[in-house]
Amino acid sequence: MRIYIYIYIYIYIYMQIWQHWNSGTILNLVDPSLSRDAGGQLIQRDQLLGCIHVALLCVQENPADRPKLSAVTMMIGGGSNSTASLNPPSRPAFCMHPADATRTASGGETAAASANRVSLTELQPR
C-alpha cells in the first residue's frame, strides 16, 4: 500500500510543477535555500528558470522529445544563452489527464487510473 502512496505523491508533485510552470509562478515552488550557491553568491533568477526548463524537457511525455544527455550538459553548462533558445517543454510524463483521473472498474466502482495509461491496478484484500 505504501508504494501507491509514494506514486500518488510523485504524480501530484509533477502536476503541481507543471501547473506552476504554465502559470508563470514556478519560482514560488523553489526552496529559498536554493537561491544561493555553495559560495554564498546569489543565484540569478534566469539560472533557476533555466535549470527548471531543462528538467521539464527531460521528463516530457514523449521520450523522443527528451534531449540527449550530451545536450542537457550543454544546456546547463553553456550559460544563460544556451537556455534562452530552448523549445518549450510539453506536459511531463506521469501527469494525469483530467479525464484519466478515475475510471470505472469492472464492478461499476470508480478506480484510480494508471498514470501512464499502461495498466490499471485494482486493490483487492488478500
Question: What are the defining features of this structure?
Answer:
126 residues; mainly alpha; two-stranded antiparallel ribbon; 2 strands; 5% strand; globular; Os11g0549000 protein
Task: Describe the protein in words.
The protein is mainly alpha-helical and 126 residues long. The chain folds into two domains: 2-95, no CATH class; 96-126, no CATH class. The chain contains four helices and two strands. It has helices spanning 2-23, 45-58, 69-77, 80-84; strands spanning 102-104, 110-112. It has a two-stranded antiparallel sheet with strand order 1-2. A hairpin with a 5-residue loop joins strand 1 and strand 2. The two termini are 12 Å apart. The model is unreliable at 98-108 (pLDDT under 50).
Task: Walk me through the topology.
Layout: H1 2-23, H2 45-58, H3 69-77, H4 80-84, E1 102-104, E2 110-112
Euclidean distance between termini CA atoms: 12 Å
Count up the domains. 2
Say how many strands there are. Answer: 2
Judging from the principal axes of the Cα atoms, what is the shape? globular
Low-confidence stretches: 98-108
Compute the number of helices: 4
* Radius of gyration, in angstroms, nearest whole number: 18 Å
How would a textbook summarize the main sheet? 2 strands, antiparallel
* DSSP helix fraction: 25-40%
Beta-strand percent range: under 5%
| Class derived from helix and strand content | mainly alpha
Protein name: Os11g0549000 protein
Biased composition (Polar residues): 116-126
Region (Disordered): 82-126
Biased composition (Low complexity): 101-115
